Amino acid sequence: MSGAALGLEIVFVFFLALFLLHRYGDFKKQHRLVIIATLLAWYLCFLIVFILPLDVSTTIYNRCKLAVNSSPAETNGSYVTLAPSKQKCFKPWSYIPNGIMPIFWRVVYWTSQFLTWILLPFMQSYARSGGFSITGKIKTALIENAIYYGTYLLIFGAFLIYVAVNPNFNLQWNQLQTIGIAAANTWGLFLLVLLLGYGLVEIPRSHWNGAKRGYLLMKTYFKAAKLMTEKADAEENLEDIMEEVRKVSESIKYNHPLRKCVDTILKKCPTEYQERMGRNMDDYEDFDERQNSYPSEKSLVKLHKQVIYSVQRHRRTQVQWQILLEQAFYLEDVAKNETSATRQFVHTFHSQEPENKIIQYFYTPTVEWYWECLLRPWFYRVLAVVLATFSVIVVWSECTFFSTNPVLSLFAVFIQLAEKTYNYIYIEMACFLTIFFLSICVYSTVFRIRVFNYYYLASHHQTDAYSLLFSGMLFCRLTPPLCLNFLGLTHMDATISHKNTQPTAYTSIMGSMKVLSFIADGFYIYYPMLVVILCIATYFSLGTRCLNLLGFQQFMGDSEMTSDLIDEGKELIRREKRKRQRQEEGENRRREWKERYGNRDDSTRNRAVHTDQKESSFSETNANRPLSKYTRSNGRTERDRIELLQDAEPLDFNADSINDDPLESDSGR
């Protein structure tokens, strides 16, 4: 089993990252390099979280083996061994052989750092660039990232000068490497505590509110009102951009040097706008026949960038509106079915997507009623209590993990109790649950936050390339300090425990932070205590209230603006529901008509075809007869037919004169 657990987790984490990326990204429309870079960033970060518990159990086994093979007075290199255990050390099922983990962590860590500090920022600027050539996009990306990279060099230079001036340090390559790692982890820890303080409170509260049907429905109405405003703004913005594209397309003709750039812009426009512009364009007119002022290539680059952004935003709001409608309809159905005497869940509208037959067989209307109306609220309440308990333990441990005698961090207490009995399964499960909960609190906040319209992770394949790359950058910057914080909470980091025991392979890659004592003994220990203040601020919704005062409407129960938006959203949902009902009624009537009169229409159609065949054969047999004999009768038949057709048309009583015989004007002509 050596290395088997590592291989299984590597494969599992890859498919997990691929599944999440497929949910938020669009493999068909987005560039392959964007998909590959984002997938690699997410994969490496998730991999660190899943593999770190195996590193902890392997380290504990190595400590046990070192203690058994040594006497209490002996030393092994730079490590002072513990007293030999009375029982034999059992190798864990997930044991990883020596030498594998250091190489693994070195490759994963430095690859993720290369992605987050160099490659992904460059690809962000490249993806948002409106250039028409690869060279132009690269040039734009380099110019935009010049300030970005210069800031990092300035910070690294400040650390470098501090170490060079201090006479206690001799600059070596390992120390320079440690300074770079410390600078990156300091930036990540600063952002980590902010996101963690929000997630520790918001995740349990969101699950507790998820058990309140009325709360969810009111919040959905509120979201509908806000999304309708954003949707209308996106449509108006798209119309304005398309109008500019139309003017440019009409001014730059087929033989203009910049016509290729215009064609590239037109390909990014929606199909209906492309067809509309294609009808109004005259390609036979030369561009030099008129003395017009033509746009420059720089203005076309700017227009191209605006088209990409406006089309993506318009498409995203359209999809989100349909998803929100389905959610609102479903919550209204749940509210109606709670008082159902038959205990059968009845949907107002049938699902537009085909359901799985296996799910239909087990998830019957009765099972759905019991789950949605009875079990689900209680399940969410119990889950919220469990998550709130975890949050309290995390906050307590963040404030006390620096205390080693006595050990106050609850996570360190759990790990040390399991270490005494060498229960590796318990150690791995405790480590995994701890770091998994911390990751959920941090990563879920990354998925929830929205920086205006520049960064927004939208599900159902509606996230743009810029937001995907930005999320990969955040994950790569937050994961290493998150893992170091976890090792500090469990006292597996020698810097926190102040013991000369064998460190984990992950800690050995990070290097000794004692090179920068004010960071190792100050910032890393006392800054995480700020999470208490952030949790209190999140509990009382101070950030939400501040945003509401600044004009960003937030969902607040005691606000008049919130109640007005709820009423507006309720009316919008009611209007869309009536529209959907009329559409379904029309489809049902057409279906019933086809089922009732379909066979009769087919027989009538066959009879008409047979009659036409007879008439055609009769006309063929009489084609050679003289036509003068039937001239008057044919004209009379034609006259009768025209009279019948004219009678069927509505009369215009506003005309100047009305003729009794509609053929008089024809005969006069």
TrEMBL record:
Chain segments annotated as coiled-coil in the UniProt record: 224-251
Polar residues bias: start-end ranges: 618-634
Residue spans of biased composition, Acidic residues class: 658-669
Residue ranges with Basic and acidic residues bias: 582-617, 635-644
Compartment list: Membrane
Pfam families xref list: LMBR1
GO biological process: adrenergic receptor signaling pathway
Topology of the protein relative to the lipid bilayer: Multi-pass membrane protein
GO cellular component: membrane
Keyword Transport attributed: no
Keyword tags: Coiled coil, Membrane, Transmembrane, Transmembrane helix
Domain of life: Eukaryota
Residue span of region Disordered: 576-669
Transmembrane residue ranges: 6-21, 33-52, 103-126, 146-165, 177-201, 378-396, 425-446, 466-489, 523-542
InterPro entries on file: GPCR-associated_LMBR1 (IPR051584), LMBR1-like_membr_prot (IPR006876)
Xref: PANTHER family: G-PROTEIN COUPLED RECEPTOR-ASSOCIATED PROTEIN LMBRD2 (PTHR21355)
Family the entry assigns: Belongs to the LIMR family.
UniProt protein name: LMBD2 protein
Organism classification: Eukaryota, Metazoa, Chordata, Craniata, Vertebrata
Gene: Lmbrd2
